[in-house]
Amino acid sequence: MAANVAPAPASGWASHALHRAQAEPAYGAFLLLWIGFMAIPIIFGLDKFFNLLTNWEGYLAPWLVGISPLSAHAMMLVVGVVEICAGIMVALRPRYAAYIVALWLAGIIINLLTYSGFYDVALRDFGLLVAALALAVLARTYTKPGIRHGGMK
Please, what sign has the CA dihedral across residues 86, 104, 127, 135? Predict the structure, then answer.
């Protein structure tokens, strides 16, 4: 008769991270924010090229289009590239990139506050800015400082 034996936990990074997140709630919060701030900017950045989620040009304040040498469409393509880069930077160096994302969100908020009718979206983006700052604070604990020594602990 075979004994009931639980399978041994996987030894991969994801398994270790999940076990650590169960033991340390703050680490779990760090992982959620880290994954979110990798995925969301990349998804939104890619969508600037396809406009599947929304017509992104509609969120651009007219005064920005007026002072830019680029068309609204071209500006959104540049925004898409910046957002994709931001997601990649968060993946590689959340300790530093979270502050860059927070500044980027501040710029988006200013754009939305100067364009009537998008105050609800500006408030949502303020919540994202606060979350990006929380990621930066948690990353000080859960990542190593410096470019040469950066990365996860």
Answer: positive
